[in-house]
Design a protein that fits this description.
The chain is mainly β. It has one domain: YVTN repeat-like/Quinoprotein amine dehydrogenase (Methylamine Dehydrogenase, Chain H). The protein contains 1 helix and 28 strands. The strands form 7 sheets. Strands 3-2-1-28 form a 4-stranded antiparallel sheet, with no helix packed on it. β14 and β15 form a beta hairpin. The chain is globular, with a radius of gyration of 23 Å.
Length: about 375
């Protein structure tokens, strides 16, 4: 029996709806995207070399809207906020303080909404970073429970534990070597923070064939195979950014830079990375953020007019901008926070944390980005 016109119309509607829901399901699974209704904050620790811990007008964590870069609020911090990590849900700030004594630091857990301190733990060191989608917090080689700050495990002291994708459990690490093994910390591996297991091995070789002596930082790519690193051969004035394959040990890319104490960040779809060359301010060198396409290994440098002293670097959540700041390790390193356009590396905005009563610029400490609580 031939279908009547109503039946044909109904079948056509069903077919259209099926195509619509199939496409909707495909788009939802095509990769992570930023929900339009989620707002993000940029947290900037700041102090002044001459400020005392009791100076409530400074020694603060300044909170900016990550889209407009307008100042929203600030949190008083007893000491210099050397490092700031934001929990993936945006509810908590983890702050590592820094004082002139250079002694053991204190880790603070602060409610990002109420600004109240949940707890503090003394004797912590190293950079802060979340792994396993926020399940653990790394502080140096210590794997911490973010809930109460207790140490879940201590990773081997034969490693210098560095950076990895926050959604995974593996991070890059350098192996403490000897002069008979190409130098000190010249080998990069991957370590699983939940088990301590190591995998892969990479020694960077320059076009001349010589291996780098020492790595200052490294970041594991989300593909779990490539590693991005900054190291030196002989001295800090012979510095290089490199990309290597942990499985084969092959050096995939090398790029000469001025100074090795920068950072490396990777965008959310893992196609782009940015690495910084902070230069040496006393020698008149300019800090430079370099953008690299990880598909072609093409490098983009910023226009000369937009160069600024930069060490810390992050992609903002929109992936269209990056934020740079001076090194956070030294309380005397003053400087602004710069926001650059990814497409051109031109500066869009420069932010100086406000509140200083001193005539000289403030010192920017750690910076962190996370969802608004």
């Amino acid at each position: 029996m031939r279908p009547n016109s109503y039946t044909m119309i109904i079948r056509s509607l069903i077919a259209v709806l099926a195509v619509f829901f199939t496409l909707a399901d495909f788009n939802s699974c095509s990769g992570p995207s930023k929900p339009k209704d989620v707002k993000y904050n940029l947290y900037v620790g700041a102090t002044h070399f001459y400020a005392s811990p009791e100076d409530s007008s400074f020694n603060r964590i300044y909170i900016y809207d990550a889209d407009s870069l307008t100042l929203l609020d600030s949190i008083w911090q007893a000491h210099y906020a050397q490092d700031v990590a934001v929990s993936p849900d945006g509810r908590w700030l983890f702050v590592l303080d820094f004082t002139l004594t250079h002694g053991p630091r204190t880790l603070w857990k602060i409610n990002a909404q109420t600004r109240q301190v949940a707890w503090s733990r003394s004797g912590r060191s190293g950079r802060l970073r979340f792994q396993d989608n926020g399940g653990v917090l790394l502080a140096g080689n210590d794997v911490l429970d973010p809930e109460d700050g207790s140490i879940l495990r201590h990773l081997s002291d034969s490693l210098v534990v560095l950076w990895g994708p926050g959604s995974g459990t593996k991070v890059a690490a350098t192996v403490r070597g000897s002069l008979t093994e190409y130098g000190y910390d010249s080998v990069v591996t991957a370590v699983d923070v939940t088990s301590g297991e190591r995998s892969g091995r990479f020694v960077a070789h320059l076009p001349s064939g010589l291996p780098l002596d020492h790595f200052f930082t490294a970041r594991l790519h989300p593909d779990q195979r490539r590693v991005l690193a900054i190291g030196v051969l002989g001295s800090v004035y012979n510095s290089w950014f490199v990309v290597g394959d942990l499985l084969t040990g092959q050096t995939l890319f090398t790029y000469r830079i001025n100074f090795p104490r920068g950072e490396i960040a990777i965008n959310s779809d893992s196609s782009l990375a940015v690495f910084t060359d902070p230069g040496v301010q006393g020698f008149g060198e300019s800090g430079i953020p370099y953008l690299i396409d990880l598909r072609t290994y093409g490098v983009i440098t910023p226009p000369p007019a937009d160069l600024a002293l930069a060490s810390q670097v992050r992609f903002l959540p929109d992936n269209r901008r990056i934020v740079t700041a001076p090194a956070a390790e030294h309380i005397w390193s003053g400087g602004p926070v710069d926001v650059l356009d990814v497409a051109t590396l031109k500066r869009q905005k420069r932010v100086w944390p406000t509140g200083s009563t001193y005539p000289t610029p403030p010192s920017v400490g750690g910076i962190g980005i996370g969802p608004r609580p």
